[in-house]
Write a structure and sequence with these properties.
By secondary structure, the protein is mainly β. It is 12% helix and 40% strand. It has one helix and eight strands; from the N terminus they run H-E-E-E-E-E-E-E-E.
Length: 153
């Protein structure tokens, strides 16, 4: 009986330790769902708050590498490459971040947002207006290779 209890006790201890470990971090580089951009997620203000910047994107013919849709005319000449467009994501639980803001360079609007690390290792970014039901999600996959140079650089 004692021979059975030792392995069982060790297994219980391992299960308790695993249950108390923090979840994986979304920090790092992510390829956008349409594979037309790479986003780098990082700690933006010390502590646990996360932000994201655009580190590479593909330009379609006729597009500009500048933030032309920005509602502030003074910022329309800033480059999209390196632009911090995700801010304020606070941890809600080990795999979820909330209270974020996402600036959409396509329309110049800023939306509320959440992030969730999915069980398959992808990252779900959900932007919304007022309530989470009115919004859209995008699934990012980890990017581990080199980052190409941004257009216009």
């Amino acid at each position: 009986m004692a021979a059975f209890l030792k392995p069982f006790a060790a297994l219980c201890v391992l299960a308790m330790v695993a249950a108390t470990q923090p979840g994986a971090s979304p920090e790092g580089r992510w390829l956008t769902e349409k594979k037309n951009g790479i986003v780098e997620i990082f700690r933006c203000s010390g502590g646990d708050v996360l932000c994201g910047r655009l580190v590479w994107f593909r330009l379609k013919p006729g597009d500009s590498p500048l933030d032309l849709t920005n509602p502030d005319p003074k910022q329309r000449n800033r480059p999209l490459c390196g632009l911090v467009f995700m801010t304020g994501f606070k941890p809600a639980d080990p795999n979820n971040w909330e209270d974020g803001r996402v600036y959409n360079t396509d329309d110049g609007n800023t939306y509320h947002a959440t992030m969730r690390l999915q069980p398959d290792g992808t990252l779900r970014l959900h932007g919304y207006i007022l309530v989470t039901l009115i919004g859209a999600s995008e699934i990012f996959t980890r990017h581990t290779g080199p980052v190409p140079a941004c257009p216009g650089r």
